[in-house]
Design goal:
Layout lengths: L1 H5 L2 H19 L12 H22 L8 H31 L5 H8 L4 H8 L6 H11 L3 H8 L6 H9 L8 H17 L5 H8 L6 H8 L6 H6 L6 H13 L4
């Protein structure tokens, strides 16, 4: 029994699949790679099913199992799902490749942008061949969306008027408090750090209601921020942030 289990394709498939996942985790430089351990049972199950499929095909060839059976139907469904997944991934890769190629037509870039896929959106908005008029139209309708505004900031189509409109936004322009906070983190703080704003804009940001952690940290890096503006950020419930504010004040000689 142990000998049969030892050489079982199901067991071998589970072990190989798990080993593949673990190798990816231990060789990854991503700080969140450890999350992959949660998927060990999933990978083991997938590997076991694939191993069972190989074994089933082998037995069918040897005529040791019936072709028309529940097990054959199960593996047929597995093959269909695998085929659909592979096709989807291939299409996804093709779209991502097209989204970043300067040779891709404007019509195709617009279609990719309209899919609503975040990864495609980032690639398309970074493509220098995308007409700035398309970006303007997209921004006009979605200026309060932090994901779209952030992608535009990192792309080659950012214009001064867009920056001004981003800065003019107020809490009422956002559907929720969370969206407002995310906008501060991913858009306003990025604008400050990338030095895409003027000294007047720095003061506008400092006057925003309920400035968030990363926006404050970005503002503290600016020489334009006054002592009075820094004082307005105090007190903070976050000890690390409060300490950063106090250090900035001490560095610039604030009373």
């Amino acid at each position: 029994m142990i000998s049969k289990l030892k050489y079982s394709p199901i067991l071998i498939g589970a072990l190989l699949s798990t080993a593949y996942l673990l190798y990816g985790i231990f060789t990854s430089t991503n700080s969140t790679a450890a999350i992959g351990f949660l998927f060990v049972p999933v990978y083991a199950l997938i590997g076991a099913i694939l191993g069972g499929l190989v074994e089933h095909v082998f037995f069918l060839i040897q005529k040791k199992r019936a072709l028309l059976s529940k097990l054959s139907a199960f593996y047929l469904i597995v093959l269909f799902i695998m085929g659909f997944y592979v096709f989807h991934k291939m299409e996804e890769r093709q779209n991502l490749a097209a989204a970043e190629k300067p040779q891709t037509s404007v019509i195709e870039l617009k279609k990719l942008l309209e899919t609503g896929d975040g990864a495609l959106q980032r690639k398309v908005l970074a493509n220098p061949s995308l007409p700035v008029e398309v970006v303007r139209d997209l921004f006009k309708v979605n200026k309060a969306r932090y994901d779209i505004a952030s992608d535009i900031i990192h792309g080659p189509h950012l214009e001064n008027e867009m920056v001004s409109e981003m800065i003019r936004l107020v809490p009422d322009n956002f559907p929720s408090k969370v969206e407002y906070e995310l906008y501060q983190t991913y858009v306003w703080a990025t604008l400050v750090r990338k030095k895409k704003v003027s000294s007047e804009h720095i003061h506008e940001f400092a006057a925003k209601p309920s400035p968030q952690h990363f926006l404050i940290l970005a503002l503290l890096e600016s020489d334009e921020l006054s002592c009075e503006e820094k004082k307005k950020f105090l007190p903070q419930t976050n000890a690390v942030l409060e300490n950063a504010i106090l250090q900035s004040m001490s560095k610039t000689g604030c009373p």
